[in-house]
Amino acid sequence: MKRAAGLLIAAAVGFAPPGSAQETTLFHFHPVAVPSANAFPQLGLRFHLQQRAPYEARVTSARELVLVAAAGFDGSRSASLTAWAPLLGPGWRLRARAEAARDARYGWFGLGNDTGKDDDLVTDDAPHWYRVRHTRYSAGAEVTRRIRGPLHVAAGGGVARTEWTGLPGATLFEGSFPGGVDEDDATGRLALVWDTRDREYGGPRRGLLLEAGVLAGTGGDGYTRTWGDLRGWLPAGGRVVLAGRLVAADLGGEPTLDARALVPVWEGEITALGGIASHRGVDQPRWLGTGLLLANVEARVEVVDRGDYGGLSLVAFADGGRVFEGEGLRVTLEDWHFGGGAGVVARLWRRNTASLTVAGGGEGVEVLLGGGWMF
Questions:
Q1: Mean pLDDT of the chain
Q2: CA 131 to chain centre
Q3: Ordered domains of the chain (ranges, CATH)
Q4: Cβ-contact 83, 96 below 8 angstroms
Q5: Class of residue 155 by CB neighbours under 10 A (exposed 0-12, middle 13-18, buried 19+)
Q6: pLDDT tens-place string over residues 286-299
Q7: What is the rounded CA–CA span in Å between residue 2 and residue 240?
Q8: Run of H or E including 285
Q9: Closest to 165 (Cα-Cα) out of 178, 153, 156
Q10: Fewer beta carbons below 10 Å: N end or C end of the chain?
């Protein structure tokens, strides 16, 4: 049975050398809470088929397949299948993902950096004034090749269909887009990555991750994207790690709404601006635009350390950023939106993490349950 499971995962994400340590294959499943935009997390199950990496590796899985299915109390639901092979072969790694997700309370405040929020507009006749139903079906893959030392090149592509649909009652979105918006998109991207992290599981303790990329998409009337992403981790005492991230991204052409909301990064994406992946003190997403500047800083303090069995950390953070719409991206600190907060991150075994944060950004308090570290 174990051998058959190993052959199944190898067929999906590549083959391991016979007799290697990567042949240790595990299957496990457990309940999971999936973050849902501006709502109580979705509850579901996570199924994980894994080939273990050598113990001394930067990752805990050589290859893995992860299936997650969840549903919320407000009509939100999601299902995803992710294949990740960070040890696909010498110098090679792969990530592929297919997902169908509906956020029934996605944020919509208009386009631009100066959109307002007036809670008096949320009434019994318009309870969803700043909300829209956001449904997205997507599939994509990214292959990474190490060039030399910590320098890598990553190439990927994907397809997506996004449906923006108004909710019952009067809404700001329906006022701008009566009948909703349907968007189809196909993308291809290329990025250079400089990666000196000491590890990829449980939160890095030292190192840099620098990425610069370009993307072309067919959505709208066609568009292009450029982005840069710098992340760093620095130990500051026995159990303290300082972490920071800077992101700059810009769109050209006639991009979709979905392209404004999602910024691709290496083996993932950022929802901007607002929410658990970018600005924890405001709704997801609070501001949308063709350009983005984003900064996050964190102080992480490990208060319980039980080695491979798990641990508990406290985190204090500050998030800030701004978007650009109808103007080109420029480096500036004017009109930034700042917020901050604190939380706890629990680690079970070497890899599994969960976070609970409380943050504010001038528009109320956000309590967020997430899958671990923001970056």
A1: 92
A2: 21
A3: 1-87 (no CATH), 91-370 (2.40.160.50)
A4: yes
A5: middle
A6: 999 999 999 999 99
A7: 40
A8: none
A9: 178
A10: N
Per residue in 346-363, pLDDT (tens digit) is 998 888 899 999 999 999
Predicted confidence (pLDDT) per residue in 170-212, tens digit: 999 999 999 999 999 999 999 999 999 999 998 999 999 999 9
Half-sphere exposure of 61 (CA within 13 A, CB side): 25
Other beta carbons less than 10 A from residue 318's beta carbon? 17
pTM equals 0.90
Q: How far apart are CA 25 and CA 2, in angstroms?
A: 6
Residues 6+ apart with CB under 8 A from 53: 21, 22, 59, 60, 61, 62, 86, 87
The token pair at 89 is: 């072969």
Cβ pair 249, 257 in contact under 8 A: no
Written as one letter, the residue type at 71 is A
Block residue for tokens 């592509």: 157
* Residues linked to residue 317 through DSSP beta bridges, in sequence order: 298, 341
Give the tokens for residue 293. 């500047």
From CA 239, how far away is CA 205, in angstroms rounded?
Answer: 10
pLDDT value at position 23?
56
Q: Is 60 exceeded by the pLDDT of residue 19?
A: no
Question: 189: which 2 tokens?
Answer: 């991207």
Q: What is the pLDDT of residue 371?
A: 85
Contact (CB, 8 A) for 233 and 207? yes
| Cis preceding linkage at 150, omega within 30 | no
Q: Distance between CA atoms of 243 and 71, rounded to whole angstroms?
A: 33
302-349: pLDDT as tens digits: 999 998 899 999 999 999 999 999 999 999 999 999 999 999 999 988
- The confidence band for 1, taking pLDDT boundaries of 50, 70 and 90, is very low
List the structure tokens of 328.
Answer: 């080109």
- Please list, in sequence order, all residues whose beta carbon lies within 8 angstroms of the beta carbon of residue 200, skipping any fewer than 6 positions away: 58, 59, 86
